[in-house]
Amino acid sequence: MIPSTNRTLAYVSMLRQRRAVGRPLILVTNDDGIASPGLYAAVRAVSDLGEVAVVAPRQQYSNAGRCHPPAARRNRNAVERITLPADCPATVAYAVEGSPAQAVASAWVALLRRLPNLVISGINYGENLGSGTTISGTVGAALEAACAGIPALAVSLQTDPNFHYSPSEQVDFAAAMHFTRQFAQAMLADALPPDVDVLKVDIPAGATPATPWRITRVSRQPYYVPIIPHAEPAYDPYGPDYRIEIDMATLEPDSDIYALVVARVVAVCPLSIDLTSRVDRHQLAQLLAARTPPHSPSATTKDASDTASHPAAARPPAER
């Protein structure tokens, strides 16, 4: 019998062995819901690159981040097998009563019983940029996959904000499909460098397949900001409304916001599940020790891992 402490690792190992047999398995999910035209576009974009499975939230679940709401876990009717439109050739499709991250977890743990070779989250209605990236359910689903050792692609298309919570057939996904397929092929071909767990791809409105793309970083600026009411605000359980606001004077030229908004190119941003700051940890320990009362213990011994400016620099590649 497998010891309980090793049961999950053994299960993942078994799924990895299944992944090595046959065509690559591509899991498609999103945060706009199972009936989103953006999700259908993603399926059509990669349908011939492997075996495609769809597991997505039953309803709109934007701004969910990587949350796992407890209520969804207690729902006995949380999963429903559905039929996609005829032009979306997926092997199987499930609607999940839960968040995008829960959809991904349910997919590989229980529904597919096979570790996908790639997870594609999108195509999202609305760009996911700047410090608000962590709010995105599209990105949250990709990070959930990455935490299971699955390469993930989070794709968003810049759209009119009126479509952010109301997916519409009016949106043209042709360019977004092109770049979804392009980066999916690149990720299926071979593993990405260590510490690149997710590719976040944001496509500007009006892009074509000929639009250039560039590697960026996540801007430290917010992109969507809350609208501050002039009068005393009434409580809104859904939170304040928002608008796009950019401080052009301090916007970083190598950021995702700059690439999409100013340069009008496709912003490709590598993300890591390692949230550790890139500070020199030895110097930080010394700084904190200097501010700590003398009787408090401190750790100022330089650890060997601190020789790198970023902790991921010395980390071995993750198994794919």
Structure description:
The protein is an alpha/beta fold and 320 residues long. The protein has two domains: 4-271, 3-Layer(aba) Sandwich (Stationary-phase Survival Protein Sure Homolog, Chain: A); 281-314, no CATH class. 26% of the residues lie in helices and 17% in strands. The protein contains eight helices and eleven strands. It has helices at 7-19, 37-46, 70-73, 100-111, 137-147, 174-189, 256-262, 281-290; strands at 25-29, 51-57, 79-81, 92-96, 118-125, 152-157, 198-203, 213-215, 224-226, 242-244, 266-271. Helix 2 links the parallel strand 1 and strand 2 (51-57). Helix 2 (37-46) crosses helix 6 and helix 4 runs parallel beside helix 5. The longest helix is centred in the middle third of the chain and has 16 residues, at 174-189. It is globular. The two termini are 26 Å apart. The model is unreliable at 304-320 (pLDDT under 50).
Short synopsis of the structure:
With 320 residues, the protein is α/β, with parallel strands linked by helices. Helix content is 26%, strand content 17%.
Q: What is the first-to-last residue Cα distance? A: 26 Å
Q: Give the low-pLDDT segments.
A: 304-320
H-E string: HEHEHEEHEHEHEEEEHEH
CATH superfamily of the largest domain: Survival protein SurE-like phosphatase/nucleotidase
Q: What is the second-level CATH architecture of the largest domain?
A: 3-Layer(aba) Sandwich
What is the makeup of the main sheet?
A: 9 strands, mixed
Query: Quaternary state, please?
Result: single chain
Number of helices: 8
As for the number of domains, it is 2
Strand content: 15-25%
**Global morphology:** globular
What is the fold named in CATH at topology level of the largest domain?
Stationary-phase Survival Protein Sure Homolog, Chain: A
Structural class: alpha/beta
The level-1 CATH class of the largest domain: Alpha Beta
Tell me how many strands there are.
Answer: 11
C-alpha Rg (nearest Å): 21 Å
* Integer average pLDDT: 88
